[in-house]
Amino acid sequence: FYGNIIHHYFFMLQVLCRYQHIWNIDLRFRPAFLGGIMQATGNKPPAMLPKRAEYMLKDIKRMAKYYQVPVQISEGDFQRIFGTSNLGAMRFITAIDMTQPGYLEPLSREFWIRFWSQREDISQPENILAVAGQAGLSPEFTQKLLEITSSPAVKNRLKETTEEAIKYGAFGMPAVVAHFNGEPHLFFGSDRLELLGSVIGE
C-alpha cells in the first residue's frame, strides 16, 4: 500500500486496516512521495479542474460519513494543500519505516488527522514532535529521527519507494498493489475495495 499524508488515501488506509484480519492479508505500508509520482507520470492534482474540485468537495464529505472517518473539508482546503509542502513529514515517516515500521500506521493516521481535521502545518518540527508523541514515540527518539530526515539514506529510501510505486504503474495515490498468485495487481483510488476483494477471492 503506497500512501502519502495529505491525500484522501486515508479512506483506503482505514478500510484496509479494518479488513486485514478478516481477509487474512499481509498489509505493508510503503511511504512514497506523491509529488514525485505526479511529476514522473505527467499527472496533475484533480482539484485543479474547477468542476472536479467542486465534485470532490461533496464526494469527500460523503466518503467521510460512509467510512466514519473524521474529515472537515472546505473549498479553501484545496489551495491549502497546493501551498503546503509535506516532504519533511514524508521523510520523517520514511525514517520511521527504516527504524520502527510498526509505528507507520498510527503515525500516518495522526499526521492525517492533524492536517485534515485540525488544519495544522505538519511540515513544522514542533508539530512533527507533537504527532510523534501522540503516536507513542519518545521525545528523545523523535529528535534523533528529525536529525536524520535530511540524510542521504532517508532521501534515497523515499526516492526508491516512490520509483517502486511508479514501476508498478502508480500515477497517483492511494495505490494498492496486491500480490496474488505470483502476480502484482495495481488498484488506484479509495473506492476499489470490492475489486481488490474480488481479485484475491474475498
Automatic annotation (TrEMBL):
Enzyme Commission designation: 2.5.1.18
Entry superkingdom: Eukaryota
Protein name: Glutathione S-transferase kappa 1
Catalysed reaction, written as an equation: RX + glutathione = an S-substituted glutathione + a halide anion + H(+)
Molecular function via GO: glutathione peroxidase activity; glutathione transferase activity
Assigned keywords, A-Z: Transferase
GO CC field: mitochondrion; peroxisome
Pfam families linked: DSBA
Keyword Transferase (UniProt): yes
Top EC category: transferase
PANTHER family with a match to the protein in the record: GLUTATHIONE S-TRANSFERASE KAPPA, GLUTATHIONE S-TRANSFERASE KAPPA 1
Family recorded in the similarity comment: Belongs to the GST superfamily. Kappa family.
One GO BP annotation of this record: glutathione metabolic process
Domain DSBA-like thioredoxin: 10-199
